[in-house]
Fold:
Amino acid sequence: SVAIGPNGTPVSEIVQEEEGLLYADIDLARCVEPKQLHDLAGGYNRFDIFQLTVDRTAQRPIRFLANHRPQDEESSEGDTLTFHS
Structure:
């Protein structure tokens, strides 16, 4: 057994191959910041294998195609928007 701190490092001695009681002094203030950064409600909260990337380049939210008409003109009531990813 071992007590692990919020940054993943041991904060106690490792107890192996014997029975015993494990004691460790912990500082609860060190736990506040990691909890603020950790999304416990999310399904993908493994910092060691997932990362969030934000693309800050300008994006066009919609693209209009010139000369694009629906296949069935008679059943169409108004403009048709086609979304492409």
